[in-house]
Amino acid sequence: MTHPENAAHEPERAEEFEKLAEQLKYPSRRAAAKGGIMGALIGLAVIVPGISGSTIAIIFKLYDKLLFAVGNLFRRFKQCIRFLLPIAVGLIVGVIAGFFSVKYLLELQPFAVISLFAGLMAGALPAVFGPIRSTRPTAKRGGLFAAGLLLPVAVSVISVLISAKTHSFENLRFYHYLLFLLLGYIVAITQLVPGLSASAMLMMFGYFRPLLDSVSLTYWQSNPMVFLVYACLAAGFLLGLFTFSKFLSKISQNYKTPFYYTLAGLSCGSVVTMFYNPDIVPVYRQWAGGGFAAELCLGIVLFLAGALVSFVLVCFEQKKENRR
């Protein structure tokens, strides 16, 4: 039986739902291209340690729409798929580009690449604070921001301290495939919650490097069962994407301001974790032997350059919106 209070809010919720569904339409081809670029950056986020795909979505001001579209894909299939298609295409391009270019650069100059991406993220943080700029800070909201800031940092520290030994995809048993389903679900959550890194999670379980190394024709020929691993990861990922996005979408609609204070903290925390995760810590250990000045200077320059570029782009975008 429906509670009278809930029944009274039903028309209001239905109206809000229809409004959100209507906002999924891209107003122009340029807006659709923007969705594709965001998808490509989210694809790169899977490869670069510390980057959260959802932080990128917030910067592009598409986070709420993305949560709604994924969570209600089967309820409003036509509208949602039109919104998600450019993002999905961009994501595939980003993942492929990441595997064959960023992966190589990370092996060549890991600190420099991380610094560049961290700078791009840091410079775009004003866009993350946009939804809460006009709100009044309170102790509760400050606490949510602090909790959001500390969560990714804590996860990153734990992933460094208890990072599992590297595993392989050979001689797998039935329970391994169940683990891959769970791992896929967890990776989906990292792409929906800002500040959580898919690569850091995979490293914590000891499967990040094996997964990267498995993407080659030679490996596929010698171990075709790896495709079953991919299938389990994909199934868990899709399940997590649909269920958790629906959960977050409801929270964002019902508790918008507290939700965005938490997101702002998570986004700031994600920049911190880019410089402390299982993939970058070994670089610092190498620096203990000396001779790191050139690499450090290059990283600082790239961080500042990335921050400047993204900050200018965010300011330009905000000026355009203010003219409308």
Describe it for me?
The protein has 324 residues and is an all-alpha fold. The protein has one domain (4-323). Helices cover 78% and strands 0% of the residues. It contains 16 helices and no strands. Helix 13 packs across helix 14 (256-273).
Explain briefly what this protein structure is.
By secondary structure, this protein is mostly helical. The chain has helices spanning 4-22, 29-47, 53-59, 63-71, 77-108, 110-123, 125-129, 139-161, 174-192, 198-205, 208-213, 217-222, 226-254, 256-273, 281-287, 293-323.
Write the layout of secondary structure elements.
Elements: H1 4-22, H2 29-47, H3 53-59, H4 63-71, H5 77-108, H6 110-123, H7 125-129, H8 139-161, H9 174-192, H10 198-205, H11 208-213, H12 217-222, H13 226-254, H14 256-273, H15 281-287, H16 293-323
Helix pairs in contact: 2-3, 2-5, 4-5, 4-13, 5-6, 6-16, 8-10, 8-14, 9-10, 9-13, 13-14
Organism: Candidatus Borkfalkia excrementigallinarum
Keywords: Membrane, Transmembrane, Transmembrane helix
Transmembrane segments: 37-63, 83-105, 111-132, 144-162, 174-193, 226-247, 259-276, 288-316
